[in-house]
């Protein structure tokens, strides 16, 4: 094919997967990535950070022919293991069976696999090259190497996959405002590590369940909900877990301001996460050397500059991580864009406009659901009304599967548009509230009547998967 070459900025998760798919469809693709090649230098100082891969991301990887390779390096998570302050814990399954599970994957290993796949498909990577600015009228970009030396390069179609702090977005915004709004959550995060069980003292190992390699149940996403804040932990293949503390940035309740260093943090953990602290032998070093991450939602009115430039992934729609869908959503983006471009390679203005038309309502919907899920995670996992709704929902999911599916499952295990999941979730929730209005007790509810209510009030669910 003799199309104009495509220039991608950012070889992260979304950039690398998009590049691979475009190359597979016959496009010439060049990628400029700020960081050095992680396959040569290691990823981010070798820290293991992981992410939850769900059905939408997996479906995009299937399209790219990479799903099996990724799953080989992933740890299955069947549900959330909720750890109460009194030390009690219990597994709440995510889905109905092992066909509805999510996967913990290493960010670094996944990124490297995607870089290999993109390169094998013919993509040309330039590492250690960061975009500084873009002159869209002259069709030139300015790049800086690691030592700050700048050079200019001509560019045709430009795609920004350079993450939440996108330089492509800044350049587009300077040319003509994108209607950018960034809403800070006001909470930050800190990553800590639980090493493989073999590296923990015997006394600690025994009190945590006795899974040979892992200090906690390996096949779960662990949550320690504490009202205004929480910890989570996801398993790594080597037997370790990456723990993330989510905490308000400021304020007098525990916050990163009142817990500024390892000494204060260890005292805070011994009160609020007493079972977790002994599993983190390098707590002090981790806490003092890892930065506090910030969390925001990014909303843009416009994702493209006519046919010249487009944003994708976090660069277009960064969200808070509490549904574990940022990467999944970005991966879904890549399939939509690659298909649109392959169908109309010479009409980028139309393709970019259509991409925004299709994806923006869905990005807005997952942004809203991710924010809602933080509150649900932190406190309502223990709230009796929430538990009653879950219990009733679980009964309806078996008795009226065509008319009820929990929103979490629609988001995590189906391909229905996020906007549909949000809307359907609202309608289902209103009916559950109506049924529980006069009794807090699920046992008092006439299930046949409840099934009839759902069947008469809502259309059947659409097909949950495609392709
Ligand atoms: P990024 O991964 O940020 O990649 C951007 C790339 O662009 C990087 O390689 C960067 O070096 C490069 N770059 C930046 N600036 C320039 C420049 N000027 N020039 C050239 N290159 C540049 N999502 C999930 O689906 N599941 C999860 O469980 C999950 N957990 C998360 C937990 C936390 C704490 C956070 C913060 C996010 C989480 N996410 C999760 C979201 C996920 O990390 C992002 O949605 C995903 O990384 C977005 O991919 P991206 O390629 O768009 O951006
Ligand atoms: C998932 C960082 C992150 C990633 C996740 C999830 C959560 C809480 C967080 C949402 C969830 C997988 N979730 N888990 N249990 N209930 N909701 O499903 O990815 Cl904080």
TrEMBL record:
Entries under SUPFAM superfamilies matching the protein: FAD/NAD(P)-binding domain (SSF51905)
Pfam families per the UniProt record, alphabetical: FAD_binding_3 (PF01494)
CC cofactor: FAD
Function: Catalyzes the hydroxylation of L-kynurenine (L-Kyn) to form 3-hydroxy-L-kynurenine (L-3OHKyn). Required for synthesis of quinolinic acid.
Domain FAD-binding: 6-175, 294-359
Its EC number(s): 1.14.13.9
EC primary class: oxidoreductase
Keywords for the protein's UniProt record, in alphabetical order: FAD, Flavoprotein, Monooxygenase, NADP, Oxidoreductase, Pyridine nucleotide biosynthesis
Identification of the protein by name: Kynurenine 3-monooxygenase
Pathways per UniProt: Cofactor biosynthesis; NAD(+) biosynthesis; quinolinate from L-kynurenine: step 1/3
Homology family: Belongs to the aromatic-ring hydroxylase family. KMO subfamily.
Keyword NADP: yes
UniProt catalytic activity: L-kynurenine + NADPH + O2 + H(+) = 3-hydroxy-L-kynurenine + NADP(+) + H2O
Source species, domain of life: Bacteria
